Amino acid sequence: MPEINMRQALNQALREELLHDPTVHIWGENVEGVGGGFLITMGLSNEFGERVKDSPLAETAIVGAAVGAAYCGLRPVVELMFADFTYICMDEIVNKMAKVRYSFGAYNDVKLPIVVRMKVGGYFAQSSEHSQTPLAHFMHTPGLKLVFPTTPYEAKGLLKTAIRDDNPVLFFEHIIHFAAKGEVPEEEYFIPFEEANIRREGSDVTVVAIGYMVDLALEAAEELAKEGVSLEVIDPRTLEPLDMDTIMGSIEKTGRVVVVDEDVTRCGIPAEILMQIFEQLTEAGKTPVPMARVGAANTPIPYSPELEKAVLPSADKIIEAVKKVLV
Amino acid sequence: MKLTHEDKILLYRNMLRGRKYDEALTKMFNKGQVPGMWHSGIGHEAVGAGVATFLRQDDWLEVTHRGITHGLAKGLDARMWLAEHLGRVGGYAKGKGGHHCADREHGILIGGGTIGSCFPIAAGAGLAAKRLGKDQIVVCLFGDGAAQRATLHSCMNLAGVWNLPIVWVCENNLYSITTHVKNAIAAENIADLAHSYNMPGEIVDGQDVLMVTEVVMDAVERARNGKGPSLIECKTYRFREHGEGEIPTPYRTREEVKEWKKRDPIKLFRYLLLDEGVVTEEDLNAIGTKLDKEVAETVDWAIESPMPALEEAFTDIYVE
Asked: Is residue B318 part of a domain?
């Protein structure tokens, strides 16, 4: 199986879907030629012409036009350079994209097939407006699907599933993963949503990790194995829909859980997942398990690398949390 | 476009039809039969009928919250529209959307509660129309309030750069709720903005349905022939308050309202038709009588439409 990086895997998925469906159209800032801020769409405009198009620097227009175009028969796959820029077009995402089917389309069975791809994540000294991982806002918004792959194999299979989905999908790509290599089949394949991936089997503590946090959790697992502590690392891959069954199955075995997310801890995704775990356990008449969360500090993300490191999650912080639930 | 006698009578009917439905819902609101809110568009009928009457069914129309005449002239189903306002299951969104209706079958785009969100939607519709190659065009209505949003800039710019088949039509009724346009827009006329986006901009008397029709349909032909977007500003006036149930505050004078009401677009057109000898008083009265019957039947139907079952609140969020 050929080894390629996540950039190439995403590019393959986009190319296959452009070939598969003439209504698939891509637009965003600088997507022609070199292929956007992170080179993902490289070469596609040469092959597909107008269907891969540079847009003006206007996130409201990029994302809002995707809503209008999807309503009128296209299958837009648009790119935002940074997930931080979703804040520019919150109205288009939260008030329109997420709500059109429910508030306007019930009679006409309106489908809104849209994918908004965007780079997320820190650890790259890009400061407070280029380093965020703002998934929690959108997990909070009914009507959206959220996908966050962590390997080239997942990136391709999940992006293809996202493009074929008839719902709006926000697709997050971590900056650290772009260059990471992995095996990706040349033949077509799809990875279904709501199917968590158990990245490492273990018996003592379940660690649910999102996006790049999976890499850190695996690092922590490696360290703790030396001390005889066995972590089971689960990557949900999609936050909506969320595969709670796999998480609950793991907790059944380990009896302890830590949830890790790169975003600010307060009101974050770990809080939500842990509460769902608590509710499922207590509703089934079971004893709640020891639980902990790891996330970023309640600060803007600082620029200076050592400060950034102090604020964001790390393998060490995960180990600390694991030790808390082991007590 | 050259209008026949029949076309003119259709314009008159569409204006009057919008007015009568508007009055009916206003009355129902004031009797407490409407759970939410209602923004009457009385005074705007020349824009509504002039813009929408001669579009193709597969053309796209973005209407404002004051757009009942416009929507009905485009093919919006009056019964479903009214039922939706009453929160009934027979409405366009089974009562879940309320006062913003969309109807894809009849080319009516997504309205919305965030003023100015119309521009990106219309830009996307224009892009789809262009790429799908079926000669469809888009008409996007917006008010002077929406013209204050940054989305206008980003989307008129996008439509200009991508040469999209869009006719931007501003219904400038002078007030965004209570703020006068002079205190909110620096340009002398909203149509003046067109120059910045390299498209033609025209100012039209929004109370003159023939003028609105002529200028809009010219722009529609331009868009259909691949010549890109246009901007038309219709100077009009809202006869009632921003929302029903609102107490008028002294943001405009009684005299001003009275002056504008002298230029009621339906009355003006009625005089013109009679003057031209196109129709008789009896003909026009018969149109009114027929519409009264239709509206009464629609009101009955909508009131009889059941409330949605509680399970409806939990459906239509995702395509399964």
From this structure: no
Catalytic residues of A: 130
Contacts of B157 in chain A (CB under 8 A): 56, 58, 61
Does A96 contact B117 at a Cβ distance shorter than 8 Å?
yes
Residue B320 lies in a domain: no
Do the chains contact at B132 and A111, CB–CB below 8 Å?
A: no
A143·B157 Cβ contact <8 A: no
Number of domains within chain B: 1
Task: Using CB atoms within 10 Å of the CB of residue A218, give its burial: 0 to 12 exposed, 13 to 18 middle, 19+ buried.
Answer: buried
In our burial notation (b when 16+ CB lie closer than 10 A, e otherwise), range A14-50 reads bbbbbeeeeebbbbbbbbbeebbbbbbbbebbeebee
Interface touch A103/B97, C-beta < 8 Å: yes
Q: Which of A148, A92, A115 is nearest to A24 (CA)?
A: A115
Which has the closest alpha carbon to A100: B316, B106, B291?
B316
Residue B244: give the domain boundaries.
Answer: 5-313
3-state secondary structure B289-319: HHHHHHHHHHHHHHHHCCCCCHHHHHCCCCC
A119 touches A211 (CB < 8 A): no
- Give the sheet arrangement for strand A238-240, strand by strand: A52-54, A24-28, A75-82, A114-120, A168-174, A145-147, A238-240
Query: Which one-letter amino acid corresponds to residue A285?
Result: G
- Number of C-beta neighbours around residue B6 at 10 A: 9
Predicted ipTM of the assembly: 0.97
Q: Which residue ranges form the domains of chain A, and what is each CATH number?
A: 3-183 (3.40.50.970), 197-326 (3.40.50.920)
- Calculate the dihedral angle through the C-alpha atoms of B103, B319, A86, B145, rounding to the nearest 10 degrees: 20
Q: What is the pLDDT along chain B (320 residues), one digit of tens a residue?
A: 899 999 999 999 999 999 999 999 999 999 999 999 999 999 999 999 999 999 999 999 999 999 999 999 999 999 999 999 999 999 999 999 998 789 999 999 998 889 999 999 999 999 999 999 999 999 999 999 999 999 999 999 999 999 999 999 999 999 999 999 999 999 999 999 999 999 999 999 999 999 999 999 999 999 999 999 999 999 999 999 999 988 878 899 999 999 999 999 999 999 999 999 889 999 999 999 999 999 999 999 999 999 999 999 999 999 98
Which residues on A lie below 8 Å from B80 (Cβ)? 107
Measured between beta carbons, the chain A residues lying within 8 angstroms of B112 are 95-96
Query: Which residues, at least 6 apart from A306, have a Cβ–Cβ distance to it below 8 Å?
Result: none
Distance, in Å, from the CA atom of A269 to the CA atom of B5, rounded to the nearest integer, reads 64
Residue of A nearest to B137 (CA): A72
The verdict on residue B64 lying in a domain is yes
In chain A, which residue's Cα lies nearest the Cα of B115?
A91
Question: Which of B103, B120, B124 faces A72 most closely, judged by CB atoms?
Answer: B124
Size (chain B), residues: 320
Place of tokens 């102090």: A310
Q: What type of residue is B253?
A: T
Q: For residues B8 and B273, is the Cβ–Cβ distance under 8 A?
A: yes
Residue B283 lies inside a defined structural domain of this protein: yes
CATH number at residue B222: 3.40.50.970
